[in-house]
Amino acid sequence: MLRSRWRRALFLRLDGTWKVWNQETKNQRQELRGHLEAVACNLCGSERQTAVYAMPDRRYFREEFFTVTECDECGLGFVNPRPTIAEMQKYYPAEYYRKPPTKSHEGYLRRRFTAQASFLTQLEGGNGRRKILDVGCANGDFPRFMAARGWDVEGVEISESSDRIKDFRVHTQEFQDIPVNEPTYDAVTAWAVLEHVHDPMAQFKKASRVVKKGGLFVFLVQNFESIASRNLFCEDVPRHLYFFTRGTVRQYLEKTGFALEKEDNGRSIYKLAPYNWVAFMVRTKLLRKKYRYEDVPMTSKEFRYVNHLQGGLVTALKYAAYSPASVIDRMLWPAIETGQILRRTYGVSTFVGRKL
Ligand SMILES: [Zn+2]
Known about the structure:
The protein is of the alpha/beta class. The chain has a domain at 102-224 and 237-271 and 348-355: Rossmann fold (3-Layer(aba) Sandwich), CATH 3.40.50.150. The chain has helices at residues 2-32, 85-88, 103-117, 141-148, 200-210, 227-230, 246-255, 277-286, 300-306, 313-322, 324-342, and strands at residues 36-37, 49-57, 61-71, 77-79, 82-83, 131-135, 152-156, 169-171, 185-191, 211-222, 242-243, 258-265, 348-355. The site of zinc ion has 8 residues, from loops.
């Protein structure tokens, strides 16, 4: 009895917090409109779209909501309207680029780079050196990893992360604007980059221009057909502006002179954990209701912030009482992810396009 009363009090308190957040959101939505631009489909040019969901910038501006739409013609997903390029800077504060320099992080990077390099092994060996361009190379660790495997390397990086790179050539403008216009590279890679850019088509076209015949364009993007990307509000909106599927990637590649050679739908490079899969299933399958952003339980971090709590066992128990589904969810992740990978519906895919 006592426990349920305590829980009810907690729920009411949280519910009130959400309502305040929502009201603030509505007031600020209008204000934001002036900084946004409406766009047609980047892949097919159609202006007919259907809204899929709306969610805020969960990282930095919780009051700003964005709508993700899907092109009625080709199925490409994109934020529309969206911040202009000039406006975009605001959504990438310095802390976005800060990486934890820990030992476990180094181990994680080594595993990730090895997985990334596995898509390029078919080009290794034989005579002569191979040349790779890594788009969005950050501080240059992946090109350095490839250089150690015997590749000549170059990078593209528009953020200040590139300032400290002195050991290889790095282009500091957008990929489509770099002063290379001939077939130059055996491979161009872009790991979790294309969802961030304002014009993916320009990037595919540029890749087509600078990759040698028979060379590879290898890139990782989220999978808009996955529950995590499409239904669970796991996308990093508005830093993620585009949402791809197998079908839309194939069309991008075919329109720009590549053949889709391989798709790897899995979690070996980046993960997109199906947060709140249990809550989503209960609401949509059992209760037959829509699952909106407002229905998403707070993460434990958000919960601590809203309730001014420190970490620890008591807080963990309070969180478990607030959202039992989240706790069950955590336990089921490995099984859910494995099931999704087997059914090729996991949240992240790596694609290999071969230049024709
Ligand atoms: Zn389209």
